[in-house]
Amino acid sequence: MDLLRAYSDDQNPNSPASSSSPESSPPRLLPPKSAAPQVDDTMLALTVAKNRSAMTRPIDPTQHLIDFNPTYDQLWAPIYGPSHPYAKDGLAQGMRNHKLGFVEDAAIEPFIFDEQYNTFQNYGYAADPSASAGYNYVGDLTALQKNDAVSVYNIPQHEQKKRKIEKRKENEEDGDEADMVDPEEVANPASEAWLMKNRKSPWAGKKEGPPVELTEEQKKYAEEYAKKKGEEKGAGDKGEAVVEKTTFHGKEERDYQGRSWIAQPKDAKASNDHCYIPKRLVHTWSGHTKGVNAIRFFPNSGHLILSAGLDTKCKIWDVSNTGKCMRTYMGHSKAVRDICFSNDGSKFLSAGYDKNIKYWDTETGQVISTFSTGKVPYVVKLNPDDDKQNVLLAGMSDKKIVQWDMNEGKITQEYDQHLGAVNTITFVDNNRRFVTSSDDKSLRVWEFGIPVVIKYISEPHMHSMPSISLHPNSNWLAAQSMDNQILIYSTREKFQLNKKKRFAGHVVAGYACQVNFSPDGRFVFSGDGEGRCWFWDWKSCKVFRTLKCHEGVCIGAAWHPLEQSKVATCGWDGLIKYWD
């Protein structure tokens, strides 16, 4: 503004101000003006002051986070101020990591700690691990100087010599006593001399007092207790005893020609080698009051089908003619786990949760023999060789595979290598070997009759395999894995996993759904946990078809041995269904 005024005065020389003298009036000075807005800097000043004070004040020991870099003096400054009103020793809660105060961590080897601890207990002094360089001992300093700071594990030389002399004296005294003792007493185990000579522990030289006679009441109690324990042991060794019964539901057990009701029809033969996937339901068998655990077609002909129920019963049904139940076998007190026909179908095995394995006559329903080890059998199998139909193999819940000779009723072999309950037994290599799977997530291959594993298959990615089936060409095994897939293993020498073949899509986790092959080997099929039956093509491994079969779990499925497009399924809804 002053410059503008001066500029205007220069431009107008005739103005009165210019003509007047300098002393006539003083110049007018205007206050300067700022265009910036007014800012309150109080908060800024407080923040700066707070940061400066934080850099100088001591750190609170209870806080866990610091928003600035403290100095060494701040970190290790002592705590000042009044003691904590609610703490006995004046330590704040944040400083306490033990009920008696604050304990510092110290890294000490266990041997060194034991050495110092025992030294302190015996001599009254010990090394201080937290002390700085210099005199680092705590405790009785007089004893420390007297013993020359030795620990209990470092015995001085004069002490060692003293102990050796004392031991030598003891041995010489024992030798003098032995010379004075009669040899006959030394030879007598009841004598004191024999005990002294043969002692092996501080207590071996002491004779026990004379045996105390039991009173009549104590003897009676001991006899009752022994009897009770014997009964319990006997009950544990054997399965539950049940009266075996059977009921025939057909019209007559023999026809007008005298043929048995289980006789194979003469016209039963395969009309075609080519198998087809079934499409529709043709028959339903209902008779079990609870779920059905397993189904097996009659060998070779398939004109009958045997079922194992959770209602403790086995039933056999007519397939080719009437479609009705022919006979019921009642011999178990708990659910039936597994069944297995003999080669000609005249007999079959049943394994129940009552710990019994029963060998039945299919035609008459009579129990030929019963076997039990006191454990639950999870799978039963007869040796497929015609000359070994008297040999029974059973996978038990106590991790063993037990082999019986049924003619003699004796256990002839035990295969004991698994680490979990045995789930399956499958014969391979012309029945010279068999493969077993278990809850220990492994497969083991055995030579028949030799309890030594010849092949052990266990990988980190493997799951339990509750069902295994042999391919019709005997070269492959299909194993139902609990991670919702079917794996294929070779039955050759190496028993390798076939990584190119894997069948998936179904959900079986948690259920022992049975896997099977069609008679011509072109299809793999299995039930699942949602009641469906899945069919896969063997070559392409693709899903061919799924059928909704049961409400709940479809636990078992079997292909008819002669009729190429017929499949039976069973489920925990108590039904057996026949599909074509």
Amount of beta strand: 25-35%
User: Spans with pLDDT under 50 lasting ≥5 residues?
Assistant: 16-22
**How would you write the strand order of the largest sheet?**
3-8-7-6-5
Helix run count: 10
Oligomer state equals single chain
Number of strands: 31
Provide the helix percentage.
Answer: 10-25%
The coarse overall form would be flat
Brief digest:
This protein has ten helices and 31 strands. With 580 residues, it is α+β, with helices and mostly antiparallel strands.
Notable features of this structure?
580 residues, alpha+beta, 5-stranded antiparallel β-sheet, flat
Q: How does this model look, in words?
A:
This protein is of the alpha+beta class and 580 residues long. It is built from 10 helices and 31 strands. It has a 5-stranded antiparallel β-sheet, with no helix packed on it. Strands 4-31-30-29 form a 4-stranded antiparallel β-sheet, with no helix packed on it. Strands 9-10-11-12 form a 4-stranded antiparallel β-sheet, with no helix packed on it. Strand 23 and strand 24 form a beta hairpin. It is flat, with a radius of gyration of 47 Å. It starts with a helix and ends with a strand. The relative contact order is 0.07. About 1% of the residues have low confidence.
